[in-house]
Amino acid sequence: MKGLELFEEKFWRPLSYFGLTHHFFNINYSTVVYTWIVIGILITILIPIYIILQRKPGLIHFIVTSFINYFVDLSKQSLGFFSLTHFTFVTAIFTFIALCNSISLLPWMEEPTKDLNTTLALGIISFLYIQFYSIKTNGLKAYVKEYFHPFFIMFPLNVVGKLASVISLSFRLFGNIFGGVIIAKIYFGAIEGSWLTEIFGIPLGLAITSFFGLFEGFLQAFVFTMLTITYLSTAVAKKSKTPTKSGEAA
Amino acid sequence: MTEIVEFLHYLSIALVVGVNSVAVGIGEGITGAAAIEAIHIQPKAKNDIQTTAILGMALVETAAITGISIAIILLLGTRQADKTIFLGLSELGIALAICLSGFTIGIVSAWPSSQACLAIARQPFSGKRLLRFMLITQSMIQTPVIFSFIIAIFIKNQSLSANTIAESLRLIASGLCIGLGSIGPGIGLGQFGGQACNGIGINRKSYGKIFSFTLISEAIIETPIIFALVTALILITTQASTLLQGIGMIAAATSIGIGTIGPGIGSGKAAAAACKQIAKNPAIYSTLAKVSMFAQGMIDTAAIYALIISLSLIIFG
Fold first, then answer.
1. What is the pLDDT of residue A245?
2. Least CB-CB distance to A6: which of B237, B290, B308?
3. Can you give the pTM of this predicted structure?
4. Please, what are the domains in chain B?
5. How near does any CA of chain B get to the CA of A165, in Å?
6. Three-state secondary-structure class, residue A190
7. Which of A20, A64, A215, B15 is 20 to 30 Å from the Cα of B49, by its Cα?
8. Domain count for chain A
């Protein structure tokens, strides 16, 4: 989209040698680099935790188990049953998005989620996961029947209703993080120019960064996860013989 | 021509201060009346009620403070030589952004504080908790005002370089977008915040559940505002070369602006109803929260349709 380059982004055109120079083939390499850094941080945290968990209980043991127990309870309550697959998917998505949103607290880092490509990818992942398990639970026939649910003419509306969940998930995350980034940039732009305001403006700047990084970031990650679980719970619910649920259940 | 320019310039300044002050006056009146009623019900909790009412009023005043700071920026930041008809028209965009959001938020943000005062009268021993809760809900309600302020600053920066009628229309569209877009979600947030404070007043043991529900629900109710903000930012960053493009941008802003009113109010109503039931019966919290979130996700779909239409109007228009 041409309008979304609010700040000048650095692009890598890998296929320009072959004449493919359209925006579609550009790679925003800051997003790619920061996403890989997030993945690297996750791995370097998780491997020691895996080793620590096999020893005797301690503080880290307690923190990790309470985190896991919280998500076990959450998925059990929302889905109505416990499934290791769904639980791991949901927890992984939450951990990844939460770290992505709050990575800007580290110096020289930027959020990968302020790019629409990342959030759209996450939305599509959760959408495809939900569709896959919807087919697996109820069979392909019931899945296709859902699209024509009240009567045949509703097909386009049902398709749009399903696809709207992707846009709803991804734009919600993107808009919130992007808004936070813009507000922080405007604030730091406003205080620069005088050494006095720069020194005394730093605490408020830190407060703004930590509010949008930690509070808003974790909240949006949680909202993304909760909505995924909610959509998943309606998709994998066993349908009764006379389906009364609306086909629009995206 | 000069008279029209001067008229538009001073009209925007007057609107920005006047409309916001009216709304804030009404809002502070609602809070004050509720505080007096609460002290009448429970005179022993008068210190807590007073603190809550004063802090609530201070937060309600955010809209008026935003209005006056924009007015000062407009008054002092415009040189006589810069005044063209395009600048005057662009400043109407600032007026729309600040007035519409400030008027809504000024009245609406009084609902949580008045309900919090009455709730303290019912539950005098959880006064500190209710005060903290009210501060969180009220500061979330102020988000549209802050977004409008940011958009207004952007419009102010760009209005100096606007030299065609299409560019002015683009800046007006940006202000209209965030202004209209904050009406519905603002009302929804206010309703929900009031109901949440009321719910803690009914049953103080449901505090923990209502607290976590509030954080999630307010984030979802706010989503239409985020859509409006994204559209407004896109309008700020694109160029309008022909008059037709400018008119298309006004259409896009109207689309997303009016499209968010229904989803905002509806989402707030759904969450408020769920909150009421959670206060009455905290045992079935997970079911209620799930149904409410599902309903809110469905309600938001209408706002997403509006967003798609307005984005395609901007990009292909």
1. 47
2. B237
3. 0.82
4. 2-316 (1.20.120.610)
5. 8
6. helix
7. A215
8. 1
